Amino acid sequence: MQAEEILKQHLAKTISLTDEQFAYVASHFKQQSYKKGQAIISEGDKVDHEYFVLSGCLKSFFINDDVKMYILQFAMPTWWASDYNALYNQTRATINLDCITDAEVLSISNADREKLCNELHPVEHFFRWRTNKGFVASQKRLLSFMNNDAKKRYEELMTLYPALYNMVPKHLIAAYLGVSRETLSRLYHS
Amino acid sequence: MQAEEILKQHLAKTISLTDEQFAYVASHFKQQSYKKGQAIISEGDKVDHEYFVLSGCLKSFFINDDVKMYILQFAMPTWWASDYNALYNQTRATINLDCITDAEVLSISNADREKLCNELHPVEHFFRWRTNKGFVASQKRLLSFMNNDAKKRYEELMTLYPALYNMVPKHLIAAYLGVSRETLSRLYHS
Question: Testing the interface with B: which of A70, A88, A91, A135 to mutate, by most B Cβ within 10 A?
Fold first, then answer.
């Protein structure tokens, strides 16, 4: 499917735009290709864009003071990703975003998103609901971290993203759950 | 200060409304008083409203499978609180919201917020940015949970909410940080 068609179908789940409006919105996005392992955002970067995934899988992650990697989010097709703290507050990146597989994305700048939201009320509605869903997912992730039961968290993850099991190496699933590979191995064999 | 004036000043930081538009928006909020310790949302409740804090301090919290309490968020004056997962997805509450002190709030229903966002583009803009900020705060909270350094997390919390130290009992600050009272005591005496 063409990139614009994927974006069009994605927006149409939440808002109605005329063909002319959609073409105008789409003209603010830029298609980009990344290779497996390639960094999109690195800690310390200036962050000006957010990314809509067309194909492949991204991960946003954080390396803590003990040099342990934690995964904040996987981003699969039609998911959005960025360092939103850095993007919205115009500060330097505190997290990393890179590619688990080869990936195609559409990027839009912070300034262009704000311009479109101001010009087209339905676009503002779309982005409000996009962030509402992101906020709720983030709160759920926090609750899952607070709940000690690793088995339950593993099952929640597999229900939320069934495609993940085959798409993502096991050590990255362990880094998302905050458990060791050995613990993860016990979970998916039980 | 009158409740409406607090809401007016809060909205005016992000959007411009005419006096007539503001009066219309304000007419959808309802003022409510709660006593210290009183529950606003309990696990299992149907959730139809969100709450804008006028005075006092609320906490949203979660009891895990080991009956350990974790605090998701403190909500001080001009902060918003609800179980947003339950509110947006029209499911039952999975977290609790109650009052650390006596509190005055303005409540608005899910349906009324959506109606106002649809009728007034600036109101949709306001709520998009309100959620953007909540999303970023939630991501920061997640990063703070992933980072092992309890001392750094304590300092971040005190920078973020300086009023908290005097307003909130120490065992609740410990429950927010996910540390024991003994560890917390070492942190604030060091």
Answer: A135
Is residue A168 a contact partner of residue A101, using CB atoms and an 8 Å limit? no
Q: Given CA atoms A39, A45, A51, A57 in this order, what sign does their dihedral have?
A: positive
User: What are B47-83's pLDDT values in tens digits?
Assistant: 999 999 999 999 999 988 778 888 999 999 999 999 9
Angle between helix axes A181-189 and A150-160 (nearest 10 degrees) is 70
Does the beta-carbon distance from A132 to B133 stay under 8 Å? Answer: no
Residues from chain B that touch A68, judged by Cβ atoms under 8 A, are 148
Beta pairing, strands A49-55 & A103-109:
antiparallel
pLDDT in tens, A42-82: 999 999 999 999 999 999 999 887 788 889 999 999 999 99
Strand partners, B46: B92
Tally: H helices and E strands in chain B: 9, 8
Q: What DSSP state is assigned to residue A102?
A: -
In chain B, domain spans: 3-120
* ipTM of the complex, rounded to two decimals: 0.92
- The fold adopted by the segment(s) A31-110 is Jelly Rolls (2.60.120)
Domain B3-120 superfamily per CATH: Jelly Rolls (2.60.120.10)
